[in-house]
Amino acid sequence: NNSSQLSSLPLQILLYVNGIYYIFYFLTTLAMIIYKSQVFSYPDDFLAPDLAVLFLMAILEVPRLYLGFKGNLTEAEAPLGLSLGLTVGSVVLCVYLLLWQTYVLWADVLLNAVLLSAYGLESGLKVTAIAAFVS
């Protein structure tokens, strides 16, 4: 048998860790938005977009991770490519929460910097895996 396994173990581990981290990220960011809305004068018309971005990001995260897992394990470039595309959307939303939400605390900077780093590393591994599957 001359078949070789092309799926990426580092990518699989990172997707798993990102899934766990995202749950922590979501709950912590949600708690901080609630905290900020109580402690600071948080205009109502600014609270909704910040919450909407967080929830949209959570909705994107599920297919992003699922397609990443599926594409890597089945060595299929299409789901992995779709996951990569969704990662771009997640990065944009993450940057919004890092730079443009109503109040940005040092904890927001830390949480978003870790998430952006993970997205960057994961994207590099996805591109490498896709290249391996295609060749």
The portion of residues forming beta strands comes to under 5%
* Poorly predicted segments: none
Which term fits the overall shape? elongated
Compressed to H and E, one letter per element, the order equals: HHHH
Number of strands: 0
Structural class: mainly alpha
- Count of helices? 4
Distance between the termini: 19 Å
Instruction: Characterize the largest beta sheet: strand count, sense, and whether it forms a barrel.
Output: none
How large, in whole angstroms, is the Cα Rg? 17 Å
Structure description:
The chain crosses the membrane at residues 13-35, 47-67, 79-98. Keywords: Cell projection, Membrane, Transmembrane, Transmembrane helix. One of its GO terms (biological process) is non-motile cilium assembly. It is a multi-pass membrane protein. This is TMM80 protein. With 135 residues, this protein is mainly α. The protein has one domain. Helices cover 84% and strands 0% of the residues. The protein has helices spanning 9-39, 44-73, 77-100, 106-134. The protein is elongated. The mean pLDDT is 95.
